[in-house]
Amino acid sequence: MAGTKRKCPDGGGGPSPPPPSTAAAAAASAEGNDPRVVVDVDVDVDPRESFLSTSSSLFEYLERLPPPVLRSMYALPPPRGPIVAASVLRSCRLTELSRQVALRLAACGGSFGAGGIVEGWTRGGGTGGGGRRRGNGKGGGDGLLALQRLEAMGILEPTLGLARRRLGIEGGMGMPGTDDDDDDEGGGEDWMRRLMEKDACLTPEFGASIRIYLSTSSSSPWPIITTEQIDAHRAGNSARPSSYSSTGDNDGGKPSREPPTRRELEEYTQSSWDSVLHFLVGSDDDDRRGDGNDESVGSGGGNDGGGRQRNATTIEEPSDAMVQFLTRIGLMQEDPDYVGKDRSRAPLVITSKGYEFMLRDINAQVWQFVLQYLNSMKQHEMTDTIRVDALSFLICLGSTRVGEGYHISVLGKSKYSKQVMKDFGRFGLVFVSRVAGKVSFYPTRVAVNLIASNEKATAGVVGGGGGRGNAEDGGTYGQSVAATRSLEEALAAPVPPRSHLAVIVQTNFQVVAYTRSRLHISTLGLFCEVQSYRRLPNVIFFRLSRDSVRGAFRLGVTADQILRFLHVHAHPTLRSDGRALVPPNVRDQIVLWDRERRRVVMEEVCVHQCRDAAEFAAVGHYASDLDALAWGATHTNKLYVHYRKNDQVQAYVRKWRTRQLGK
């Protein structure tokens, strides 16, 4: 169950996923393979790396890259460069008006006057009845924001100087925010006048790539493996029928297999994450063992990218390198209550950050692993090159279809691209195998949805504030259409797979969970009562209570994380009927239980007994101005001063009393 302590591995055990990357393994080796290390410790921390490491999404990461690196991604040869340009254009980092401006600029030569865009291309722009310029209207403010977002994403040349400014678009006024830029010396009106005289120019890299994308008829980034190629390879091996097998047997020393089905890809992805999630919650061997009627992953020869077979019936523990990876990103830590002399033998326990990770949807979990994978490259001498290869490959996966395969030769001769592909295979993003006589990869649903979920804009994200979507209208909590459809198919199956989870929250605080996974039971047990739950073959009944929810709060879980989990895993029927995914009374009560923890705030104070009312008034005013006064009692002339500022208040008291004695 959740919170079970685990011992540090000895380095033995069965097959398990290899380290996320050679660079990550090298970083772990440089740290002495110490599982206690939670984050990289650098004497000189690069501010740019720190800024990148806090990115909450893929396209936010792109925005924070140095402009030359981002523009080099647009300049990649087809299909990568055009696919990256199109994905950024669809991303939630741009407004709808930004997309229209970029497409118009691409069609009209790549440059246009900023004044014409702000005043003529936006709603409410143009001139008023008396010829008065309306660049400061609501349309003008939208136009400035559109240009700013385009500059920030490396689509426009930085000649306008908007990407480094804060636009104070309040009440529809497109004025610059307070900043220290030199352009503000003349004031807002002068700044606007100078801006209107400049030209907005597409960067050559983006302009060329987006034109190639618009003129390309194929939606796939690479040539797919066709049935003709598979049949031709099968015919060539007809003389040796035993050498071409659906289970990946050797063909002259080289493994060959049938293309994986969509079901195999789904189970492969789920098994990749189950090993990590089971380890986080501390599942025992019984929890890791399947129910016996699940199909084995790789009944068609699945592997983890390194040629090893996987079996979904028994979830294996992650490797030592993966455990170290979990500790380095702060999901696990040494047991603080361990009293043994050898700290290297201390068991690992899940952290509050790990609980938060457990309650997030799989897209957010995958992004956290990809983000740490990218961060691990900072020690490599070819950091930017590897990151460009990894990011462009990941974005191209978002333009593929689940079930379609590609030969590894489509990645070119770059050794970094092929290594990235293998590393992503260990994350469950791609299925690596030998099909039609060549090493091939098949994107999984997680890889496709990771990009699709980042391209769905919400109002809060576009402004650059990283806001959250509304839980009731989907927003960042909602599942993608593909994920919902996959869940519906799982629920309709005669024997639903262990990987599915569909939750219905009732107004009486009962939680109905359609699942057969003990991992999901452990996750729900974080904030639901586990002593009184009822279980049927494919459904479990939990109950939310004040004690169970407050117990989750003590583990570091927040009300927002609980509600987000319930929204992400809501039953598809609730989405199709347009009903609230979580009843309003349940949602409000969880929030109220969370606020109970902050009803009383404990403060460490010092009590000062004043001699008379005059001293009480003088010292009280000084402490109040100093923001050191916690409370004062007039009838007793007592002042309660914050402990951290008590020395300053006492120094003032001595001075005040000295002045009074001299009068």
TrEMBL record:
Biased composition range(s): Basic and acidic residues: 251-266
Any one biological process term the GO annotation gives: DNA repair
Name of the protein in its database record: General transcription factor IIH subunit 4
Region of interest (Disordered), residue spans: 1-31, 229-269, 282-316
Role this protein plays: Component of the general transcription and DNA repair factor IIH (TFIIH) core complex which is involved in general and transcription-coupled nucleotide excision repair (NER) of damaged DNA.
Source superkingdom: Eukaryota
Main location: nucleus
Biological classification of the source: Eukaryota, Sar, Stramenopiles, Ochrophyta, Bacillariophyta
Keywords, comma-separated and alphabetical: DNA damage, DNA repair, Nucleus, Transcription, Transcription regulation
Listed GO CC annotations: nucleus
Low complexity bias spans: 22-31
Composition-biased stretches (Gly residues): 298-308
Similarity annotation: Belongs to the TFB2 family.
Compartments where located: Nucleus
Biased composition (Polar residues): 239-249
Span of domain Transcription factor Tfb2 C-terminal: 588-654
Alphabetical list of PANTHER family matching this protein: GENERAL TRANSCRIPTION FACTOR IIH SUBUNIT 4, TFIIH, POLYPEPTIDE 4
